[in-house]
TrEMBL record:
PROSITE patterns: MSP, WD_REPEATS_2, WD_REPEATS_REGION
Protein name as annotated: Serine-threonine kinase receptor-associated protein
Organism per entry: Cladocopium goreaui
Gly residues bias spans: 191-200
GO-annotated molecular function: kinase activity; RNA binding
Region feature (Disordered): 143-243, 258-300
Amino acid sequence: MAPLTVIKPQPEAVEFRFARDGSLTAWVRLQNAWEGQVAYKMKTTSPKEYTIKPASGSIRMGEFHDVQIVQKPPEEGGGSPGSSKKVKFMGQAAPVTTQAQKLLLYAADKGKAAGRTKFWDSIPKEELQEQQLPVKLQTEEVEEFQDAVEAPVESHEPSSDATRSELWKARKARSQELKNAKSSEELEEGGPPGGAGAGRGNAEPTFEEPSAKSRKGNGRGEDADAEKSAEKTAARHKAQGYGAAGKLTDQDFDDIIGRMTKLGPDGKPVVQVSRPAPQPAPEGAEQSPSLRPSPAPDVERKPLQLTTASKSQQKHDVVLQGHSRPVTYLTFDDSGKVLYTCGKDKLVIAWSVPDGECLRKYEGHRGAVWACSVLNNDDGSLLLTCGADNYVLLWQAESAEILCQVELPGVVRCVEWCSHSLSLRFACCCNGFKAKPAAIEVCEFINIQGAMTSRCCASIAVPKLPSAATQVAWAGPYREWLCSVHEAGLVVFWDAVTGSEVARLPAHEDAVSKIAIPHSDGRLLASCGRQDMEVRLWCLARPESDDEESDFDDMGGGKPTPELMRNFTCDRPLNCVAIRPSLTFQQAAAEEQDAEGSCMLLAGGGQDARDVALVEAGTDVDQFEPIPLRFARTSTADSVVPLGLEHYPAEGAWDPKSRKGGHFGPLHALAFSPDAKLCASGSEDGNVRLRELL
């Protein structure tokens, strides 16, 4: 077997230490050192004496798992601590290279133990890597934790993050302190007035406050003594600012809270909790040493910060629940304040961003709506929609009024405005129907005497097309090319004026799920494949000049020469990809990237519905989460690879611990807002989720 290289154990030994409860525990961190997903398992020669959690699993690229090794107690079969030097531990790992292997591991993570067994059976012995980890035993005594043995010091100064609940706790503690002080003072006077055993020298005095009904004389002259004692105590309480008979009234409580909470010079509340100033004792009365007030410490005035609980810190996505069937497409308008979504329920819905209010519904299609495109001009926003009813509809976006409709031979899978055209040009692709072949159409709307009509500018049909196109988009520095997506992972580029083919790009080994082009630079193209589970960023043309400010002045009438710039392999089949709208060629080609970086691409997908039922993926939120990607610079021992994509760190908006909820089906649509502060995702579950990125 090969040595262990795909996983790096830290430390490279099992170092046992005595835990606080006396048990023998060791931690080993397994870091993924490979360029893809890695499966691992930990073994021991004494499985009856040691527990390994987790004993096996899989780690994504750039991540790690912490493995805990605990010696069982003797009553459960564990040995003595000295026997740990005789036991042996071994780590084994194997790279995950095929989709079938990923599905087996995914099924294992969902509780299907047979999936993990089948995975390891499929790994040849020559590909299996292993490494024995030596055992080290701590010889020192059991660690003492200072914070555990020291008694907590009572402090009247709250922390800077004091909450409103802590303020009320301080009020309650102060109230109890005053009650205890009053009870102690009554004991010095001979016990509660009129209580059981008053003036009899009880060995076990009671601390309960006597009720009014029990304050009666016993016929021995003790009622007069009790009344004098009560009057004396009440006078002392009154001098100290308390209510009659030592009871705290509402006014007393308000005074206490007023002393704890004050306004600072800036007008904001501050916390200042301290002991009350000592009051002079009445003449002739001697204070007990235990009740003498200590000098009040200097308390720093700190701002009052009312923090929320950990549950309220979880960020919730804005969920748009307007479609009754799967969401097929979504896009933002140029302002980023309106989101348009399409679904198989024949509806197109406009939502306000970011509050997620439904603005209007566009009802006109008689089948599933597959795509939409919005254009902002001087006359208002114009919306294009296409669907399974073979129609392209033109809408007035604000009024949801149909201005024109274009009928095509078959199902229209995609439609897109040409934003760089002075006229109302758009491109669409449709399937074939009976004798009419599949085609790509470039059309234009014309306003004739206040009525909108359309005319065809160019048409590309089978057999000129390699197959029916599933998507069409405008590309090039001046949007002079059309690119269409076909079967077998092929992307074809066409001249938008003449309709002639100018280039072909085998983007993926199998079908291309979706492509995306940034609004700022038409020479970049992102694509994703479902079978190979890869996201790839392509450069369609490089400027001939080295000047970074070149605006393609020297590329008029040029042809695309696609080349791969960056790629990333995901852990699930991909259905959609989105690219940052402001991304430029200079940013994508730069070797040096910021340390933090920004999310540049989004990819999403997940298992099909039948696969979800097999592996029980419906409860896995991560499987149906958008995958954030950023530009990375990766280096190896031999060379430096300046261009690449990496998974965005699990922090901020992408931290799974700070989020709650997610989609319950594979993703079909993704989009960035124009300022890249929000992202939207549409899923098989019919929901659209808005997430704040910044």
